[in-house]
Every structure is written in C-alpha cells, then in structure tokens.
Amino acid sequence: MILEQIQVGHMAVFAYLIGDEQTGEAMLVDPAADVGRLLGEARKRGLQIRLIVNTHGHVDHIAGNADCRKETGAKIVIHELDADMLTSTPSVMLRMFNAKASPPADITVRDGDTVAVGGISLQVFHTPGHTPGGVCLYSPGFVLTGDTLFVESVGRTDFPGGSWEALRNSIMTRLLTLPEETVVLPGHNYGRVPRSTIGHEKRHNPFLR
Amino acid sequence: MLDEPIRKGKGMKLTDKIYVYEWTDAFENNCNSYFIGGGTGILIDPGLKQFFPSLLERMEEDGIGEGEIRYVLNTHSHPDHFEGSELFNGNGGVTIGLSGTEKDFYEQTGKHFYSWFGLNPPDVDVGLDLEEGKLVIGDEPFEVFLTPGHSPGSVCIYQPSEKALFCGDVIFHQNVGRTDFPGGDGELLKKSILRLSRVDVEHLLPGHMDIVSGADRVKKNFLQVIEYVFPYL
C-alpha cells in the first residue's frame, strides 16, 4: 500500500494519497490545494485517482475538488451531513482561499460505511464536533483524523455547526478506543511533528485530560 | 462422455456492467456466479473449486480474463458458493470479501459443514469485511445488507446504478433459502426477506436457479414468496 502525507496550500493542510500499487488505483483525501503537485505524485507512482474523499466540508479541505475531479474524473465522497457544504461555500471564502466551488458530492457516506480502492479499504467513522458531518477514516494501523484530532491538539468547535461536547465525545469513544499503536494522520500540520499515535495522544494531548 | 470437460450452465450479459453465470446442472450442486465490470471487477460467489475452471471458461467467452477479477465477494460461507475463494489466497491483486459475522460463524461452526460434502474447509484470506452499510469500490457505490436466516452472516449486495440485488441464498425465484443447515433460522430469514422486499430492484440475482428481471416481476416474486412460502418457515 502507498500512503503519502503531503502538505499543501497556505493552511498547512495535509492531503493524503492512498493507493494500491498492485492495481494502480488510489484515493486522494482532502486535495485542498496544489492539485497539480498531488496528481504528479500519483502519476509518479503509477496511480490513477478513483475517489476524492473529504474528511469534512470546510473550504480549506475541499478547495481542490473541482480541479481534481476535472483532471481525473474521480468521484467525490463526503459524509451526508457535510454534503451541502460542498456547494454552499460563500464566494468571499472561495476568494479568500483562491478556490473554485466544489462540484456536488457523487457519493455520500455515513458511519459504518466502507471506502475501498484496490486492496485497500477504509472504515468511515462519523466523528462530529468540528463540523456535523466530519469523518475519520480507519484501517488497522492508521487513522486519518481530519480536523477532529491533531497532534497534541483538537479541531476548533467555534465554527457554525461545531460542538465541543460532540467533538470530545467523538474523540473519546471512536479514536482513543483504537489500539495505542495506531498512527494518527491529521488534517493539518499544526503539531510539533506531522504524525503521532493514539497512545501518544492519550498521554500527551492537553485537550483530552 | 467422461472425457468431456465439466461445463455447466450458460453465461449472459445482463446489463452493461453485469454478467450472469447460471449453474443449471441438476445433479452436481454449484451456485450462480456473477461478474460486475464497469471498472470494478467483482466476482460474486466463485462457487466450488472443482467447477471454477468452467466458470473462467465461460467468462473468457464474454471477453473477461481471470486478471480482470479484482474482488471476490461472497454472500455466505457455504461450500457451493465460497470454496473457490481459496484459489485467490495470496493473489495480491484480488481482495476477498465476506461478512465478519459469517467469518466468525465459519470459524466456529461453518467449517464442519464442509465435511458433510467430503470437502476440506478452505482457509480463506478474507481482506474485506462486508459490513452492513455502503461499500464504495473503485468509484461504484454498493449497499451491503446483512440478511441472516439461511446462514447467520448472509449478506445481499445491492448495486443502485443497475438496481441489481445479488441476494445469495436468501430468496430465489418462487422460493427461499433452506433454514435447516447449521445456523439457519426461519424467523430471521422472513425478516430479511421482508426487508429486501422494500428495496427498489430491477434485477433479482439469486445464488441458485433463475434470475428475475423486471421491477414488476421482482415485486410479484416477493409477494408470492411471502404469501405461499412464509407459512412453511
């Protein structure tokens, strides 16, 4: 399996390229910006993007959806509760992020669903709190945490639809219950290091005391 | 006669994406298999190992090579559906799917079922847990319904784009799956069938006997089964 953490744009967003080298298929999680570079990374590894998966509907994570979809024909996947956000980003926000409006979702998912390319399958965990339809994507060994959990920090809950109670509950019941060695792959490079583990966050994340 | 290759049943392209491989021999039991193209490469229920070459032959006649199989998805763990999955162990390009519930049942009980037929229970590397919910493969969405009754972890796989329901041995044309095998349960089977009857289905694609095509025919089939077969369960 190919799993690349790639920092893009001005907001230190981590996009993830996850692909199966045997079948040449891949998904891009949060192609937030620098789409040309992301697709170059995929091409370099002989990967064809089949899916664009958004961990949530905020503009800084979806800003590359339009270009990415145009270039690859990949389908856009997002949780059903954040799907409306794809097409309702205010124009002032789009300008601020130099972003094109995202096409609507092709496929909506909910908790318990599975997203698969080639031999890779990720479980969808619905983890509301940062947004109502935020998700984490889990496969034994690693979890993509979007803006739910960062390295020694957590997502903001002061945006519309945010809730600290929901966020804390999501993290406590869905993430910290995973095996301690599970690698945490966050949606922004906001920590001292770009990735962490569930065990480390349990012990050192000051927001989860 | 004995020198003739084993080659039972016919192959047919049902829709742009779905190929049907019915098993029509009345004496040697095996299941219907289905291949879903359209960039997904899914084989539903490979059947018994000994008959698998015949399936490959029929697929090849439709221009589908073995290399195009990327997923082997099993509706349940009974030998006549699941045994051939073992042939894909260690093939890195193929992912084998079975529900977690069915895998647990297989490990504890279902394995012994194989000896009834003089078969060795295969040790299949299941890489995809067919859980209740949406399953996106490549870029094609499917729905997995957990439908116990014939076996505890039986699943049906629904493909919304084709309105096709791959229903294993839950419901057949004018009949239902047996409930007298280990882990079978008539009440659960009734519930599962009632649930399936509410799905928008154009093609009902069961694990044995005839397929049912046409929304009206499918609806009628559910009604007939509910009226005439349920009282016996």
Can you tell me about this structure?
The complex is a heterodimer of chains A (209) and B (233). In chain A, the strands form 3 sheets. In chain A, strands 1-2-3-4-5-6 form a 6-stranded mixed β-sheet, covered by helices on one side. Helices cover 25% and strands 31% of the residues of chain A. With 209 residues, chain A is an alpha/beta fold. With 233 residues, chain B is of the alpha/beta class. Chain B has one domain: 4-Layer Sandwich (Metallo-beta-lactamase, Chain A). In chain B, the strands form 3 sheets. Chain B has a 7-stranded mixed β-sheet with strand order 1-2-3-4-5-6-7. A 6-stranded mixed β-sheet of chain B has the order 8-9-10-11-14-15, covered by helices on one side. The radius of gyration of chain B is 16 Å and the shape is globular. Strand 7 (114-117) of chain A pairs parallel with strand 8 (133-137) of chain B.
